[in-house]
Amino acid sequence: MDSRLRAQLIPLNGEQNVLGGYDFEFRDEPSSGHCCPICLFVMRNSVQTTCGHRFCKECLLRTFRESNARICPKDRNPIPQEGGFFADVAWDRDVLCLHVKCKRNERGCDWTAQLRHYQEHVKECLYEDVACAKCNEHVQRGLLRDHETSECRNRIVQCEYCEEEFEFWHKEVHDGEKCTRFPVDCPQQCEQTEIPREELESHIRDDCLMTVVACPYNDAGCNFSDKRINLEAHTKESTEDHLRKTWNEAKKELNKLKDTVKEIQAQAQAQAEKDQKEKRCLEILLQRSNDQIKELNEEIRMLKAQNSSFMLAGFRARMEKIEARLIHLERQQCGGIPVDERRNKSRKTIGKFFDRRGKHRSPKKSYSAEGLCDIP
Fold first, then answer.
1. DSSP 267-329
2. Among 137, 278, 286, 324, which one is most buried in terms of CB atoms within 10 A?
3. How many Cβ atoms are within 10 Å of 376's Cβ, its own excluded?
4. Residue 370 pLDDT
5. At 333, which helix (H) or strand (E)?
6. Beta bridge pairs of residue 195
7. What is the C-alpha to C-alpha distance for residues 60 and 70, in angstroms, rounded to an integer?
8. C-alpha–C-alpha distance, residues 118 and 283, integer Å
9. Nearest Cα residue to 367 out of 352, 357, 356, 351
10. Is the Cβ–Cβ distance between 73 and 38 less than 8 Å?
């Protein structure tokens, strides 16, 4: 059997393991030989037994399972286990050439063609039921687009009030609870309707004629409390009373203000006196500080003078010690000759050779330098 014919013998409509023959409305009445003796439908996957009778393959196998015996349903002859029946391909080809109507012809489909083409038609038939991809509900293929846009419960819709998008099945909850712009009637049954839900609270508080409110002159002593719709009439009727109560309250407030001003003035005076006392105390402290600074400066000057005297006396004593030390060292170098004598003697010796201007004198006589001592 070729692959094309095998494909044509696959059960139609996607059904698997279908028992019985083809349940179709044929354009021409099929012959009795085309019908299965067991299911009485036109044979599907026909087989022929060794005794020459034809059946649907699945119908024949079902009788074998039900009777637990391989007997021909037509003449009750036994059918061998091996080779007891075979596929009648030629008979199947004749069956598939029969013209049938679409199973959805009662819905309006006018398709008519050979049985072999029905499977291809089912894939495109506008009257065939298909599942919606969004809600899995089965609708006719031709109505699927309208279903997806206007009937599917899972289609996406947009709220006409707040423009939020959501699935259609959620619309009841959205409109009833979540939509902030959904129009609602005033719960106090005033004459205003279609109020956005988010403005309902402010409407009841500020505008609703059925809300119980107090008189604007409540602070002046008016005890009126009634629905807002009656407030205007009350205000007109009680104008003089409101003015009188307002004037009395104003006088009370004025007296309170006067008392407050006096109290503030007294506090200001007391504070000024306190500040004056503190100022005098600060001036005294400042004068004392200045006197102390002068005393400290005088003591610093005296200490500096004393320190200078002490330093000078110490310096002089130090110089005397140094001079005494030098004299002692000079005596050691000059053999014990007093410094003053040595210096005078040195000057006389030097004067023999140089005049006052430092010029060298020509000695008339030669002198021995023995006994002279260099002056460092």
1. HHHHHHHHHHHHHHHHHHHHHHHHHHHHHHHHHHHHHHHHHHHHHHHHHHHHHHHHHHHHHHH
2. 137
3. 8
4. 41
5. helix 239-333
6. 184
7. 9
8. 122
9. 352
10. yes
Element (H, E) at 37: none
Distances 76 to 46, 80, 179, 362 between C-alpha atoms, Å: 19, 13, 76, 188
State how far the Cα of 373 lies from the Cα of 334, in Å rounded to an integer: 7
- Burial label for 62, CB within 10 Å (0-12, 13-18, 19+), is middle
> What is the H or E stretch that residue 226 is in?
strand 225-227
Q: Which two tokens stand for residue 138?
A: 């089965």
Whole-number Cα distances in Å, 307 to 47, 298, 301, 302, 313: 146, 14, 10, 8, 10
CB contact at 8 A, 104 and 120: no
If 0-12 CB within 10 Å is exposed, 13-18 middle and 19+ buried, where does residue 118 land? buried
Judge contact between 234 and 224, C-beta under 8 A.
yes
Q: Name 51's Cβ contacts closer than 8 Å, sequence gap at least 6.
A: 72, 74, 75, 77, 79
pLDDT at 109: 93
Given this model, what pLDDT does residue 125 score?
93
CA distances from 31 to 36, 41, 45 (A): 11, 11, 17
Contact 48, 29 (CB under 8 A): no
Residue listed under structure tokens 């038939």 = 125
Specify whether the CB–CB gap between 355 and 361 falls below 8 A. yes
Distances (CA, A) of 222 to 211, 216, 219, 242, 253: 18, 8, 7, 7, 17
Across 209-220, average pLDDT = 88
At which residue do the structure tokens 């063609």 appear?
Answer: 113
> Using an 8 Å Cβ cutoff, are 9 and 87 in contact?
no
**Structure tokens, 275:** 């500040």
Show the tokens assigned to 319.
């110089």
Is the pLDDT higher at 227 or at 18?
Answer: 227
In angstroms, rounded to a whole number, what is the distance separating the alpha carbons of residues 211 and 205? 7
What is the maximum span of the chain, computed from C-alpha positions, in angstroms? Answer: 194
Q: What is the pTM of this model?
A: 0.46
**CA–CA separation, 39 and 21 (whole Å):** 7
pLDDT at residue 217 in the model: 85
Q: Which two tokens stand for residue 285?
A: 């402290």
